[in-house]
């Protein structure tokens, strides 16, 4: 595969996303010219390394969503202070979506804004989390409720990093890849996986360029995420993000059908892509607490006017507010009773 270079067009804050095998070797050319020091934020379990030519210090954060919190941001800030990191230096987020979310928020906060470059090592990160400048951490009341929009200076998606991933991590990424099938109608299945990843990057870059602060079209990237985030919280994050998104999209399809927005055939198409093609889970545990999940969904960031979902319809994927609990219950019933 040739190297793909996708520009996230944000005027003076535009930046490249570089996709391909061995592209981590380009990191020095992508760092800010002013940077004399780098802090590499990563995790012990990350089986991939970066070696910038400038002085660098590696700081490890904990593995798991329980470490995606304000305490981790405080720890990183203290490390930045000890190292003497300035706003002209750079933070490098090396890892999956959790790492880039945390590293990005820490960079956004340090000296009110320090450059950050992301080296994404997971499929979730490559097609979604590392691109677009959304950073944040969790609090007890919900996922990613505290954060900032802080665009990176570049994103490196070295496909060699995918070889280091456990099978479950690859499945999680496929949940996000599946999302792009329904956002665009593109025949992504006709592409080999490297080209499919690059196409997902192009789609996200275009959406981010049109709506950086998620005031409109960018919210569509949250397809399947309303229930997904609730499932993650209710399971204490034993259900991984990509797995939850897959279930969330199936639920969203049933919800759209209950609201007479799509046909049963379109619901079946969701099962075909998510369950059959990508082999992902298509329903939650039978013991889910619906009342708890609905309450968690009320706290979703999109819920500015009642229960709000990103739903399929005759005009494509769109944000729908004021969804009734009756339709939520019908969607739960349909999903749980499905034989798939």
The CATH topology of the largest domain turns out to be: Rossmann fold
Largest sheet: 7 strands, mixed
Structural class: alpha/beta
Overall average residue pLDDT: 94
How would you classify the quaternary structure? Answer: single chain
Distance between the termini: 36 Å
What would you report as the Rg, rounded to the nearest angstrom? 20 Å
CATH architecture of the largest domain: 3-Layer(aba) Sandwich
Overview of this protein structure:
The chain is an alpha/beta fold and 340 residues long. The protein has 2 domains: 4-164, 3-Layer(aba) Sandwich (Rossmann fold); 223-337, Dehydroquinate synthase-like - alpha domain (Dehydroquinate synthase-like, alpha domain, Up-down Bundle), CATH 1.20.1090. 41% of the residues lie in helices and 17% in strands. It has helices spanning 27-30, 70-83, 97-109, 123-129, 167-184, 193-210, 225-234, 241-258, 264-277, 290-298, 325-337; strands at residues 4-8, 15-20, 37-42, 55-60, 90-95, 116-120, 134-139, 142-149, 154-158, 309-311, 318-320. A 7-stranded mixed beta sheet has the order 1-2-9-6-5-3-4. It is globular, with a radius of gyration of 20 Å. The mean pLDDT is 94.
């Amino acid at each position: 595969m040739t190297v793909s270079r996708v520009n996230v067009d944000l005027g003076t804050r535009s930046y490249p996303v570089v996709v391909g095998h061995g592209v981590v070797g380009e990191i020095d050319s992508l760092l800010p010219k002013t940077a004399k020091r780098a802090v590499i934020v990563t995790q012990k379990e990350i089986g991939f390394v970066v070696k910038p030519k400038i002085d660098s210090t590696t700081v490890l954060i904990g593995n798991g969503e329980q470490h995606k919190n304000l305490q981790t941001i405080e720890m990183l800030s203290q490390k930045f202070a000890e190292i003497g990191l300035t706003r002209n230096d750079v933070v490098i987020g090396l890892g999956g979506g959790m790492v880039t979310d945390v590293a990005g928020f820490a960079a956004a906060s340090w000296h009110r804004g320090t450059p950050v470059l992301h080296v994404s090592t997971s499929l979730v990160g490559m097609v979604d989390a590392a691109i677009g400048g959304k950073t944040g951490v969790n609090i007890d009341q919900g996922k990613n409720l505290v954060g900032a929009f802080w665009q990176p200076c570049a994103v490196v998606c070295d496909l060699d990093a995918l070889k280091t991933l456990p099978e479950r991590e690859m499945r999680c990424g496929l949940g996000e890849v599946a999302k792009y099938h329904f956002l665009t109608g593109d025949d992504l299945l006709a592409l080999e996986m490297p080209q499919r990843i690059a196409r997902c990057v192009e789609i996200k870059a275009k959406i981010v360029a049109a709506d950086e602060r998620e005031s409109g079209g960018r919210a569509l990237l949250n397809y399947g995420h309303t229930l997904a985030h609730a499932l993650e919280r209710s399971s204490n994050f034993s259900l991984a993000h990509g797995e939850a998104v897959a279930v969330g999209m199936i639920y969203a399809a049933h919800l759209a059908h209950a609201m007479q927005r799509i046909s049963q055939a379109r619901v079946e198409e969701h099962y075909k892509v998510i369950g059959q093609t990508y082999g992902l889970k298509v329903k939650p545990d039978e013991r889910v607490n619906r009342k708890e999940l609905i309450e968690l969904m009320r706290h979703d960031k999109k819920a500015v006017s009642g229960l709000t979902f990103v739903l399929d319809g005759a005009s494509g994927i769109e944000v729908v507010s004021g969804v009734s609990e009756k339709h939520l219950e019908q969607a739960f019933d349909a999903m749980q009773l499905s034989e798939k």
